[in-house]
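PROTEIN DESIGN WORKSHEET
SECTION A - STRUCTURE
LENGTH: 400
TOKENS:
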């Protein structure tokens, strides 16, 4: 009989990540409550917390005396002074850099001109990060990791398979950027990154199964299943925008016809309004005209809402998520789309599944992509931490 070998290093990383996020979300938690919340035994927690404290990631504070008998309670918190993470949202015309402490709190926000030339884009990222660090009076070595979120297909290895808006194909942008910054880099599709941010920092912290759908010029999706993002065997899963809704329907930017994004994306809605003779404005103007009862605008948005509901019904019937989260332009247009979407959902979703599904609007707004970058950088930091994170005060490796 062959005995299965236990990967203790992997288990230690998983446990470290779980404890880190519980402390991050519950600052001041005691070690006893941490054990209850995580299900990890106290001895293992003690070793991990000692390592995190030695690495200046976690700090212990003794509660003020209460006059009661017994040992004072030790409160655990993430030490925001440990360093910074940078979240990068890349678009062809703009690159946005958000700097955050390791507990996810934003402390700087810088935008620099974008470029479809990867070399210039990488240099712009470097300049933006330098400006963000200067704004908080931090040195370069305070940067612990960088997460990059960009619109396009990204492989499991973190290379750009195809980013049509940038014109990038088969490009290892993360490796190029890592050489330029001398810092750990993690790169992901912007919507998948936003889904991770929704789970770590948004309203879906306690939801292990949800679908995140973000609208912009197109429609992207992230499938968060059983507590982690589902990427598929090649890392490309979640292209919800290219679900086929209308056989031989409207042409899509992907080259096919009848795709979800060809009916519900902001670009599709604006194109349909223009085709029906309505002067096209931004989302705010579209919503204003909808509220004012403009007949064409109401008809176009009612149609888009119906297709949104049909697409969501397909997802619900197949995936059975606890929650569906709308982000980006879908979040902004939600007041004008959801009535029709709910009607289509009632007609097409299986009632036994639909009754347990929430449909909510993300509160992250325009921060979704850069906060997705912060989430990626934090994952990278916890998955592959500095050597000191796995060692005790005397430098000897600690086990758990």
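SECTION B - SEQUENCE
RESIDUE ASSIGNMENT:
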């Amino acid at each position: 009989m062959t005995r299965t070998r236990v990967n203790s290093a992997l288990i230690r990383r998983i446990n470290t990540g779980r404890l880190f996020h519980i402390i991050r979300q519950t600052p001041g938690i005691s070690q006893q409550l941490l054990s209850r919340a995580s299900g990890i035994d106290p001895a293992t927690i003690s070793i991990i917390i000692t390592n995190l404290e030695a690495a200046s990631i976690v700090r212990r504070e003794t509660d003020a005396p209460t006059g009661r008998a017994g040992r004072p309670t030790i409160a655990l918190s993430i030490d925001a002074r440990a360093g910074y993470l940078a979240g990068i949202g890349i678009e062809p015309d703009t690159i946005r850099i958000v700097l955050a402490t390791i507990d996810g709190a934003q402390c700087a926000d810088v935008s620099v001109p974008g470029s479809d030339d990867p070399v210039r884009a990488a240099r712009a990222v470097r300049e933006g990060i330098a400006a963000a660090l200067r704004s908080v009076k931090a040195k370069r070595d305070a940067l612990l990791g960088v997460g990059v979120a960009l619109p396009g297909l990204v492989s499991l290895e973190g290379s750009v398979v195809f980013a049509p808006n940038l014109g990038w194909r088969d490009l290892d942008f993360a490796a190029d950027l890592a050489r330029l910054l001398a810092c750990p880099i993690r790169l992901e599709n912007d919507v998948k990154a936003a889904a991770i941010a929704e789970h770590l920092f948004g309203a879906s912290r306690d939801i292990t199964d949800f679908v995140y759908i973000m609208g912009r010029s197109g429609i992207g999706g992230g499938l968060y299943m059983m507590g982690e993002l589902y990427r598929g065997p090649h890392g490309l899963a979640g292209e919800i925008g290219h679900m086929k809704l209308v056989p031989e329907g409207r042409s899509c930017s992907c080259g096919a016809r009848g795709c979800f994004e060809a009916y519900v994306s902001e670009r599709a809605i604006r194109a349909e309004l223009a085709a029906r003779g309505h002067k096209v404005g931004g989302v705010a103007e579209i919503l204003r005209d909808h509220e004012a009862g403009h007949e064409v605008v109401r008809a176009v948005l009612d149609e888009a809402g119906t297709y949104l509901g049909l697409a969501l019904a397909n997802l619900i019937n197949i995936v059975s998520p606890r929650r569906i989260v709308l982000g980006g332009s879908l979040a902004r247009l939600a007041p004008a789309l959801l009535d029709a979407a709910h009607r289509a959902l009632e007609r097409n979703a299986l009632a036994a599944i639909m009754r347990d599904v929430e449909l909510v609007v993300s509160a992250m707004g325009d921060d979704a992509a850069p906060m997705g970058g912060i989430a990626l950088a934090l994952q990278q930091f916890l998955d592959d931490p500095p050597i000191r994170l796995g060692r005790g005060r005397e430098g000897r490796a600690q086990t758990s």
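SECTION C - NOTES
Residues 387-400 have pLDDT under 50 and may be disordered.
Residues 206-363 form a domain with the Nucleotidyltransferase; domain 5 fold (CATH 3.30.420.40).
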